[in-house]
Amino acid sequence: MSTPDTLPEPAALAEQKIWDLPTRVFHWTLVLCFAGAWLTAESERTQLLHLTLGYCAGALVLWRVLWGVAGSRYALFSDFVRSPAAALRYLQAYLPGNSLVAPRRYVGHNPAGGWAVLGLLALMAAAVASGWWAYQSGAPDAAGEVHEVLTHALLILIGLHVLAVVATGFKHRENLVRAMWTGRKRALPEQGIRSSQVLIGLLLFAAVTWLGWALYAGRLPGLTT
Ligand code: HEM
Ligand code: HEM
Question: Among 61, 151, 161, which is best to mutate for testing ligand 1, by the most ligand atoms less than 8 A from CB?
């Protein structure tokens, strides 16, 4: 029998492992790469760092697609990609006037969050691809404009993402940001994942660090010159 993926409220439950280490390493290194790429975007002096952090963000997205088909339970696309109708039904509980309707609590991503994850990944990939295109084309032109529009759209989606994380946590009285850091959430014992995949998480961190070093040190000249 399959275990349920929703729960009424977390209050009386013990914490279980939910987010594996690769998913957490992916999330927080992506946040660092995006923030770093943003802060280094304006100046000529920091351009190599901008390209390095941007490419690392791109590599992380590629990795996440793989992990979405080969990772642990809550990292799988099949766990959190649901129909648009399911996402709209979920969001109804957040409409003004519906404050007494409790949205169902999901242990993994909720149906609306699942679409946000896909949107964030797709827009991040498009931002990186357009940055590459702008870099190849050299002089400021249409590619640079497209890159700027896409990165600004991504910033807006990230703002909505953070607002949604705070709002959902507030509804269910749980700290989702802490859960994305520790990997643990209140859930039924049978809902927990068996392994945090620590080795794969550490390898992912080492691989991104290596890629960043290699790009910045000019070891992958095809991408940075
Ligand atoms: C560069 C900015 C950010 C990007 C691109 C981003 C992207 C993502 C992605 C792709 C996921 C899905 C994780 C997965 O399944 O692999 C996610 C989940 C999550 N993010 Fe972010 N994020 C960003 C910033 C933040 C920040 C600043 C916070 C904290 C305030 C945050 C909190 C979370 C939480 C708590 C989840 C899990 C949501 C849930 O419980 O379903 N994110 N984020
Ligand atoms: C997370 C990924 C990235 C973010 C958030 C980002 C952000 C930005 C932003 C905001 C600008 C506009 C700066 C301004 O106001 O003038 C910019 C410019 C630029 N970025 Fe990125 N970028 C990313 C990835 C990349 C990548 C991977 C490359 C190249 C391989 C790249 C190459 C460029 C270039 C060449 C410009 C100047 C464009 C022009 O003015 O014509 N970016 N980036």
Answer: 161
Residue 114 domain-assigned (yes or no):
yes
The answer to whether residue 40 sits within a structural domain is yes
What SS3 class is residue 105? Answer: strand
* Structural domain for 57, as ranges: 14-224
Selection from 220, 214, 224, 209 nearest residue 33 by Cα: 209
- Gap from CA of 161 to ligand 1 centroid (Å): 7
- What is the secondary structure of 158-215 as a DSSP string? HHHHHHHHHHHHHHHT--HHHHHHH-EEE--GGGS-S---HHHHHHHHHHHHHHHHHH
Decide whether any atom of ligand 2 lies within 6 Å of the 148 Cβ. yes
Kindly give the distance from the C-alpha atom of residue 223 to the centroid of ligand 2, in angstroms, as a whole number: 14
**Residue 5 is assigned to a structural domain of this protein:** no
Task: State the 10-residue block means of pLDDT for the chain, 225 residues long.
Answer: 58 90 98 98 97 98 98 98 95 77 86 98 98 89 95 98 95 94 96 98 98 98 93
The CATH number that applies at residue 175 is 1.20.950
Ligand 1 pocket test, pick from 38, 66, 180, 200 with the greatest ligand atom count within 8 Å of Cβ, gives 180
Query: Ligand 2 pocket, 59 CB below 6 A?
Result: no
pLDDT reported for residue 48: 98
3 in a structural domain: no
Number of domains in the chain: 1
pTM above 0.85, yes or no: yes
